[in-house]
Write a structure and sequence with these properties.
Its main location: membrane. This protein has 1240 residues and is mostly beta strands. It contains ten helices and 83 strands. The N terminus and C terminus are likely disordered.
Length: 1240
């Protein structure tokens, strides 16, 4: 699993949001977020949770309010579907289908016993049942599954109680409590005249009994329209084979089937709703049948069909423009439409999945701006901004200089996050309000393995960091307004891993109470629930209820015993429990949990608090789904059970008293509950079935009849928010208006939460420790051992003043005044005069390599010193240096282009009147290695040294490593030189293999060498017509060598085993033949061997001179082979005697050459010897040349592109062969498949 960071926005509770929004396959380098798009799971309006309104128990609140709900039931799998994208404004309901694509979306069937909740506009009611497996990754809390276990179920498909047919397997696992419940049901049935009944009506979706998936959209906003899409997903085929579209115009009392309006043969797969206009509906067809979409502008009454030329994997609606949509295709292409899908145009290619975002009003320059991440390679990506309908290279912006890690871009509220890995460690960058990017400053030795951004509310970032010594826990860190400096808020918060690698953090933000969080912390291997009222500044345990459900006293003393709550939806939601709160009912929290020393999954009960966590009451001794009615004025509870039920429970006094009501005359297997959109829910629909094979049963319940009247002012009482008596929370005293427990009235749509706040004097509790400071046992903030308080004056590098920290900073959004404010607030002071210190020099990409002729951007940072009076000098190491008057003038970096390959010593010097500091960087400038050629003899003499040389193309590419396998040895020899000498000690065939490593490129060449003690050789020439047919490739030379050998054997009668022929590279075509002695005749007889070879040589040369060696290259092309008069290389001399005159002549040549060399090298010191036409004023380059081939001394890989400007004599003749240096393009990968020349 890769390393990295993930960003996930959690406003209501982190756990659920990580389930909802982080279901893109999360690896350790992937960033997830509230606004990331779910490409492989259910998403849309019902998926994208309203981040500012919270998530209720079994309910997801959504600011879009379209009521889309995904309900599904299968025999053990779900189908992959597109996702609406990454904003909380996207709306649709759909299931996930496994598609035959290679994208991250689309993929896996959920676990067989998975159970998800159904959601309405702003609410999803999750009915969980015991005995089931966990939820599928990426499925938000709005899916319900039903079982289709039966004869028609596919092999291996397990069933689970869910939305639809009942499950026999679950029925076989009925606990005793369920049996008791059945007896209670039977007792109730005998006295139905006396039981309390709810106004309800039932409608059966006739003809859809085989359908195992359903999606529901309830328009809301005073609309009575409900749309429901049911589908039959064939698990053997992996596709939808049937679908039905139903529409109700009377709040779900009756439904009309619309298959004829959309096309009888049309198979629908997904349902979307515009977040800004609920009357606009979009339906996607199954792309395996046809790729098209249907659009309605009248709440689904009529539709128009439009063809698509691409397959939509996800949609992202604009948060304000109702017709603007982004669509992500299966081929990594991003499309846009400004006509609600009627026309599409391509925006960009190679876009990373989930990594595209709409601009945010007030932060971005244009409303039609798109933030997106484009893929460059498996390890590199770019963050670019693009105009909606004019995304050209000229209009693209690049907010972050250099490459970022793939799948790391997150645009969330006013913050933008990216990740860049350097040296195997990630560096996290943040931009606030679209300003420049700055590294996120965690405590120095945090060393994160994994990082999630949990929340970006109220100008502050909350991050969960898994440090180097943690496995299943995370530490919570909070930032200041800029999102740069982080301090510890809570250690060892529990996490769990989802089925597809998603991480769920046990952190829950309470809706309606600013600054209130619940978290599960691991302490001494025990998981305990803690609560905070001031955004993590202080945490405490929960006080357990004083009595149980039956009134028995509970003996539970802090800190040894407390109440612990389940805060996340784990893989098994039946036993993990839920938690709920909402904006319209501040102080009311309903959750499942346990009492004791630690949190357990057994003996789970339901608890409620109506005073914001100060006191708790037990309301059920088993798990229930608790729903909010009438903006929290009433609560509805439905029991988790795999058995059919006909009752639910209602409370009008914040859960103190519960009344039992029947909602249907016949027991129903309940699969899910869909509430009317809006906070004032008074109508809901229960989805279920009466038997295993029955149709969907939709029971509409109208709660309006149980309320007596509208609430009036006298029905409300004031309620003071407090923490164990302390009323000053987040710097204010807050008084809310709540409904009296005895009032049985309807608050209605006009009700709004009323709060009166009064500021408090600031105390020490209103301040948290500043960056670099840690809270000690006495509560004081003192500097950490690694922190130098003087370093906080870093702003002096660009400004004249700085904030001198007191070690404290005010909690974000805390509204206290006066008190100790002045004592604890950082003071602005003039920057002190000091010498520069903490100078840093890096490249913008954080690398120590760059490509020849590319723009290299150097970044210079100064930690301490007066930046306005400190000059910066940068020496690039190639003879160029520049001086800047102050630090602020180089904030955007310094660009430079290198013209030669090598290792350059780059230095930066900061200097002012008080001192200076210098930092060095050794930069490798490289050129792409295109091809290599191993030059080696075809035949070598036994026990005589042979030179093996590698020729590079281009000749100089930077630092090169050569790896040799010589003489059939298994152990390689590694050199920095491109030539080695080797002696073959055994006769026979030896293989020499060389690999050349340059940068990220490794190329290989191999040669076969025949090793013999005695042989004769001679060059061959050919008739000129052969050159016209010579493509100069290794394979051609090998074939022609074989034909020449055959012709020579036929003309001379020489034994084929004694003759070797090789065609040499290049033109004109030349070859060489080798004669080997007959071992049977010459074994151990050197004299006879020489005579034998001379005889063979004369025989072959005679045949060549008589033009007896010929071959036909192709019809009409006859080639004659001749004996050449000169050899291209010295023939091998196998004799022991050497000519004395020849040796003398050779020695003379060496002496003369040495003299010329010495004169050349010392020519500057010899008076009167002037070889320069002009002297240059620039200093000599400081460059460490990389090892190159000894056969080529070209100074650069593009020598032919630069004219020689110096008259200085060269040691060798200039290389006139054109050498191309292919430079990597930031967006295009060049491929150059050059032939490798092989001697045969």
């Amino acid at each position: 699993m890769e390393r990295g960071i993930r960003y996930c926005r959690v406003n209501a509770f982190c756990t659920l949001l990580l389930v909802l929004f982080a279901w893109v396959p999360v690896t350790k380098t992937v960033i997830t977020c509230r606004s990331c798009h779910l490409l492989d799971k259910w998403s849309g309006r019902e998926l994208l949770v309203r981040m500012d309104s919270g998530v209720d128990f079994g309910k997801v609140s959504d600011k879009n309010g379209d009521g889309s709900t995904a309900l599904f039931n299968s025999a053990g799998a779900e189908t992959g579907q597109p996702d609406c994208g990454a904003t909380d404004s996207c709306e649709h309901a759909h299931s996930v289908r496994k598609r035959n694509t290679d994208r991250l979306h689309s993929e896996k069937m959920p676990p067989d016993d998975e159970w998800k909740s159904m959601r309405s506009n702003g609410k999803v009611y999750n009915l969980k049942r015991p005995g089931s497996q966990g939820s599928a990754p990426g499925e938000p809390h709005h899916r319900v599954r039903r079982s289709t276990q039966g004869p028609e179920s596919p092999p291996g498909a397990h069933s689970a109680p869910a939305f639809g047919n009942g499950t026999a397997r679950a029925a076989r696992r009925v606990p005793r409590s369920d049996l008791r419940w059945n007896r209670e049901e039977r007792r109730t049935a005998t006295s139905r005249q006396e039981e309390l009944k709810l106004t309800s009506s039932t409608f059966a979706l006739t003809g859809d009994s085989a359908h195992n998936q359903a999606m529901v959209h309830w328009s809301g906003q005073n609309s009575s329209v409900i749309l429901m899409l049911t589908k039959l997903y064939d698990f053997n085929l992996g596709s939808v084979t049937e679908s039905s579209l139903w529409r109700s115009t009377d709040y779900g009392t009756t439904y009309e089937k619309l298959n004829e309006k959309v096309g009888v043969k049309t198979i629908l797969s997904y349902l979307y709703v515009s977040p800004n206009n609920k009357r606009k509906i979009m339906l996607l067809t199954d792309p395996e049948v046809e790729s098209s979409l249907l659009i309605s502008s009248d709440e689904g009454a009529t539709y128009q069909k439009y063809r698509l030329n691409f397959y939509i994997l996800s949609l992202l609606f604009h948060p304000e423009q109702e017709d603007w949509i982004l669509a992500y295709g299966h081929d990594q292409k991003l499309y846009s439409s400004v006509e609600f899908g009627r026309r599409w145009q391509l925006v960009h290619e190679r876009v990373a999945p989930n990594r595209f975002y709409w601009s945010k009003l007030g932060l971005d320059k244009e409303p039609g701006l798109i933030h997106l991440e484009t893929s460059i390679s498996e390890t590199q990506a770019l963050y670019v901004t693009c105009k909606l309908q004019n995304c050209t290279d000229a209009n693209k912006g690049k907010p972050f200089p250099g490459y970022i890690d793939p799948n790391s871009l997150v645009v969330q509220d006013e913050y933008v996050f990216v990740q860049v890995s350097t040296g195997g460690r990630p560096i996290y960058y943040v931009s606030s309000r679209r300003d420049v990017f700055t590294p996120m400053k965690l405590p120095k030795y945090t060393l994160p393995k994994d990082l999630h951004v949990i929340s970006t509310d109220e100008n502050r970032v909350v991050a969960a960091v898994q440090e180097w010594n943690q496995n299943d826990t995370y530490n919570l860190y909070v930032s200041e307004a800029g999102g740069i400096y982080y301090t510890l808020a809570l250690e060892n918060v529990m996490s769990s891993m989802g089925p597809e690698g998603n991480v769920m953090i046990d952190l829950y933000e309470v809706a309606g109470i600013k600054g209130m969080f619940l978290a599960n912390k691991k302490l001494n291997n025990e998981v305990k629930t803690y609560i905070t009222y001031n955004k993590g500044r202080d945490w405490r345990l929960l006080q357990a209820p004083s009595a149980d459900l039956r009134g028995n006293r509970i003996h539970c003393m802090l800190p040894y015993c407390s109440l612990h709550l389940h805060l996340h939806v784990s893989a098994n939601p039946y036993t993990s429990g839920n938690i709920a709160s909402r904006e319209s009912a501040p102080g009311i929290i309903v959750a499942s949990g346990s009492i004791g020393a630690e949190l357990t999954s057994s003996n789970v009960s339901m608890f409620i608090t109506s005073d914001a966590g100060n006191t708790w009451r037990q309301i059920f001794d088993e798990e229930y789904s608790v729903l909010y009615l009438d903006q929290g004025g009433a609560l509805v509870a439905i029991r988790h059970t795999p058995l059919p039920i006909r009752h639910l429970w209602l409370s009008f006094d914040e859960g103190r008293v519960w009344n039992k009501y029947s909602f249907t005359s016949s027991p129903l297997f309940v699969d899910g509950v869909l509430g009317e959109p809006g906070e004032e829910t008074l109508i809901m629909t229960i989805f279920g079935h009466v038997s295993h094979r029955s149709e969907w049963q939709l029971v509409k319940i109208d709660f309006r009849s149980i309320f007596n009247r509208r609430c009036i002012e006298s029905d409300y009482v004031p309620w003071d928010l407090h923490d164990q008596g302390e009323r000053c929370l987040m710097g204010v005293k807050r008084v809310y208006r709540k409904l009296k427990s005895i009032a049985r009235c309807v608050m209605g749509k006009t009700y709004s939460v009323t709060m009166i706040s009064e500021p408090c004097d600031c105390t020490e509790s209103d301040f948290e420790c500043d960056y670099g400071f840690e809270r000690r046992a006495d509560g004081k903030c003192t500097p950490a051992f690694w922190f130098l308080p003087s370093s906080m004056s870093r702003t002096c590098t660009t400004e004249h003043t700085f904030l001198n920290s007191t070690g404290y900073r005010k909690v974000v959004s805390n509204n206290c005044t006066g008190g100790v404010m002045e004592q604890y607030t950082a003071r602005r002071q003039l920057c002190p005069s000091q010498a520069p210190r903490g100078l840093h020099l890096v490249t913008s990409e954080g690398k120590l390599t760059a490509t020849l002729a590319s723009n290299v951007t150097f970044l210079v940072f100064l930690e301490e010193g007066d930046g306005s009076k400190t000059s910066i000098t940068v020496d690039f190491g190639d003879g160029n240096a520049f001086t800047y008057s102050n630090v602020s003038s180089i904030e955007d970096g310094i660009k430079h282009i290198y013209k030669n390959v090598g290792i350059y010593r780059v230095s930066a010097t900061a200097e002012n009147s008080l001192g200076s500091e210098t930092v060095l960087l050794f930069l490798h400038i490289t050129c792409q290695l295109e091809s290599i050629h191993l030059s080696a003899p075809f035949v070598a003499v036994k026990n005589k040294e042979v030179n093996l040389t590698v020729v590079l193309s281009p000749s100089q590419v930077g630092t090169v490593t050569y790896i040799w396998w010589l003489g059939n040895n298994s152990e390689p020899v590694i050199t920095l030189e491109g030539s080695v000498a080797f002696t073959f000690s055994r006769e026979g065939i030896s293989v020499v293999t060389v690999q050349v490593s340059a940068g990220n490129t490794i190329l290989q060449d191999r040669k076969t060498i025949a090793v013999h003690e005695y042989f004769r050789s001679h060059l061959l020439a050919f008739s000129s017509n052969l050159d016209d047919h010579n493509p100069d490739v290794a394979e051609w030379r090998l074939d022609v060598s074989r034909v020449i050998k055959t012709s020579m054997v036929q003309a001379t009668g020489v034994n084929p085993e004694q003759l070797l022929v090789t065609v040499l590279p290049g033109l004109p075509t030349a070859a060489e033949f080798f004669l080997l002695p007959d071992k049977q005749l010459t074994e151990g007889k050197p004299d006879k061997t020489a005579t034998h070879l001379d005889q063979l040589s004369e025989l072959v040369l005679s045949a060549l001179n008589q033009n007896l060696v010929q071959f036909t290259l192709r019809p009409g092309v006859q080639i004659t082979v001749y004996a050449a008069h000169l050899s291209a290389a010295p023939l091998v001399d196998t004799s022991e005697n050497h000519s004395g005159s020849a040796m003398l002549m050779l020695l003379s040549v060496v002496v003369v050459g040495l003299a010329v060399f010495l004169i050349y090298k010392f020519k500057r010191k010899i008076p009167g010897l002037h070889v320069y036409a002009a002297m240059q004023d620039e200093k000599e380059q400081e460059m460490i040349q990389s090892p190159v081939s000894p056969t080529d001394s070209t100074p650069s890989c593009s020598s032919q592109r630069e004219l020689l400007t110096s008259l200085e004599p060269l040691d060798t003749e200039p290389n006139t062969q054109t050498i191309e240096c292919i430079k990597p393009h930031p967006r295009v990968k060049f491929s150059s498949d050059l032939p490798t020349y092989i001697d045969v």
